[in-house]
UniProtKB/TrEMBL annotation:
<feature type="domain" description="SH3">
    <location>
        <begin position="226"/>
        <end position="286"/>
    </location>
</feature>
<feature type="compositionally biased region" description="Basic and acidic residues">
    <location>
        <begin position="315"/>
        <end position="325"/>
    </location>
</feature>
<feature type="domain" description="PX">
    <location>
        <begin position="4"/>
        <end position="125"/>
    </location>
</feature>
<dbReference type="GO" id="GO:0043020">
    <property type="term" value="C:NADPH oxidase complex"/>
</dbReference>
<dbReference type="InterPro" id="IPR035756">
    <property type="entry name" value="NCF1_SH3_1"/>
</dbReference>
<dbReference type="GO" id="GO:0016176">
    <property type="term" value="F:superoxide-generating NADPH oxidase activator activity"/>
</dbReference>
<dbReference type="GO" id="GO:0005737">
    <property type="term" value="C:cytoplasm"/>
</dbReference>
<protein>
    <recommendedName>
        <fullName>NCF1 factor</fullName>
    </recommendedName>
</protein>
<dbReference type="InterPro" id="IPR001452">
    <property type="entry name" value="SH3_domain"/>
</dbReference>
<dbReference type="InterPro" id="IPR032136">
    <property type="entry name" value="NCF1_PBR/AIR"/>
</dbReference>
<dbReference type="Pfam" id="PF00018">
    <property type="entry name" value="SH3_1"/>
</dbReference>
<keyword id="KW-0677">Repeat</keyword>
<dbReference type="GO" id="GO:0035091">
    <property type="term" value="F:phosphatidylinositol binding"/>
</dbReference>
<feature type="compositionally biased region" description="Polar residues">
    <location>
        <begin position="297"/>
        <end position="311"/>
    </location>
</feature>
<dbReference type="Pfam" id="PF16621">
    <property type="entry name" value="NCF1_PBR_AIR"/>
</dbReference>
<dbReference type="Pfam" id="PF00787">
    <property type="entry name" value="PX"/>
</dbReference>
<keyword id="KW-0597">Phosphoprotein</keyword>
Amino acid sequence: MGDAFIRHIELLGYEKRFFPSQHYVYMFLVKWNDLSEKVVYRRFTEIYEFHKALKEMFPIESGDINIENRIIPHLPAPKWFDGQRSTENRQGTLAEYCYALVNLPPKISRCLHVVSFFKVRHDDMNPITDSQIKKPEVFLLPKDSKKNLTDITGPIVLQTYRAIADYEKSSTSEMALKAGDMVDVVEKSENGWWFCQLKNKRGWVPAAYLEPMDGPDESEEQEPNYAGEAYTVQKSYTAVEEDELTLKEGDTIEVIHKLLDGWWVIRSTIRNVKSIHRQGRKQISQETYRRNSKKYIQNQRKRQGNSQNKANVIIEKKEPEDNKPKAQPAVPPRPSKDLILNRCTESTRSKIL
């Protein structure tokens, strides 16, 4: 495999931080050639110093010799005092700069200077905080920011989710979870991995391990595309349940709906997919898919059967179960109806009544 390079840089918004003193940092989602995605935080002063060094490395492409040869994008210098207004107004220019940067010739866009600047740092994953000072305020660009880069949200409270099972991280970019942990979701990726923060920790976690505190947010789901979007299968997959489809590497498929938990609905994957979308809503949630799929119904029946036989199992087994290896599912089952009624909030319980 060749050297790492950046495929895309997306400006997510900015944070207003209060430690060690009030300042602002921009949030970038950096997509790499190995298909990994990392969120990094940079002050504008850092970005401008990076820009100046890049121009010195490529004087011809920066127009220092002949202005007509300039291809490196312009970036205005920081103001004497950078407040919230200038931080917000600069986002459009910064988003355009990042787009132009990754589309420069490879000798520039893939040079060590660019790659090193956007690599994840220690403080991207574990920002320095003070528990006595309030949490950072997050300002996110809207989904249609490319159409209107000046339409910025006000200070928002990130969505809070509850971990439904323990999760042990397998890489430094991930974050471990304990059942019951409350995390704030910063970025939801269609591949089923969400970038979350828990106190002073940040990292990627599988979406299947999280449940919303106030029910699914349907506004974030894309609308189904019945015409289908063509994709090529990169790795073979054998169906486990009736509502899944066995795929072979190299197959061409048509994606109907991209769910935020990482499972995509493709042609004929869910038999009653059309009937689901005949409901009166423009958008439907991933929970609706689960409730209308055979896989969800089968899992519900299995859980109900297990709960009914639980007492008998405990009486018959005298040996400790620790002797048996416990398989950790890649995607844990969603909580049963009884569990939700007993342990979840009133808002969550109302969703299933």
